[in-house]
Amino acid sequence: MTEEEISGVRRWLVDIARWRPSPAQFDAAAAFLPPHERPAIARFLKEDDRKRALVSRLLQYSLVRHVLRIPFRQINICRTPEGKPYLSNCSTFPNFNFNTSHQGDYVGIASELLCLVGLDIVSVSKPQGETTTEFISNFSSYLTDHEWDCIVRAGTPSEVLTEFYRHWCLKEAFVKAIGAGIGFELRRLEFHHEHWTNISIHVDGELSKKWRFWIFKLDEMHLICIYSQRASRGCCKQLQENTVQCKRCGGTITFYTGKSSRSFHFLDSGTAYTITGVASSVTGIRHS
User: Which intervals hold domain 4'-phosphopantetheinyl transferase (predicted)?
Assistant: First the structure.
């Protein structure tokens, strides 16, 4: 493999709202998965929930096949007690890890060869039957006093809701990166920012420089956050909201969510820290 191919860094995203399979097409896609994975999909009653579960698992197997060149039938994905998926039969790259998230219209996956990675997608949904303040009050115990003040002073109810979901997305992505599960106290994390620039994270009151993260607005209703540990010799820095520059070559890479892709094969350009598009179908997956 080339250096680019074995970088192990991938960011893939699928818009399931644009994929409307017939029952036969859905079953054909599910048939790519090992039999033990299928009951976890079938247990969902709603079609959209089944699609999210199916695409999440297809992304995991497709990513491992694409990055590590492991034959599809030999991939063995397990899950920790906290639910984080991992590859159990890869002695060549023992630190390779990936994380998935799905909510609303999107399913995503992120991977790293050496660093821990966490991914979270949130749908900015208006609360039903209660005000925005009443809704976010349900989560006040997970927020620090500083975060609560930032959220409630954000402006209009819509801006307050978006501010809350930004904080929530950041917290969830961090917990998923470390694989701590629901037992981690989210109030231990506190985020500081200047209009969502110069974002920093404090863990247990201490500024942490071990992590780098990106948060993006996919559309008017969805946010995505990606966390990864900083390598000992950092090679990237963030220039603006959706652009990353490589310190080694000076090249810039832009995150975007154009919707022209038609298969998983077009999701990845092989370049670090890139979402190259939003796929709307599950064609192109092969068992090779």
Answer: 117-219
The stretches in the chain having pLDDT less than 50 are 2-4, 232-278, 280-288
Measured CA to CA in angstroms, residue 119 lies from 62, 206, 226, 249 at distances of 17, 23, 5, 26
Q: Where in the chain is the domain with CATH 3.90.470.20?
A: 1-115+254-288, 131-230
Q: What's the confidence (pLDDT) of residue 193?
A: 86
CA distances from 65 to 62, 248, 274, 281 (A): 5, 28, 18, 18
AA identity, residue 80: T
Which of 152, 155, 156 lies closest to 133 in space, CA to CA?
A: 152
pTM of structure: 0.78
Residue 27: predicted pLDDT: 94
Task: Decide yes or no: CATH 3.90.470.20 for domain 131-230.
Answer: yes
pLDDT value of position 84? 85
| Helical segments of the chain, H only | 23-30, 38-42, 47-68, 132-137, 145-152, 157-178
C-alpha closest to that of 227 among 181, 192, 175, 269: 175
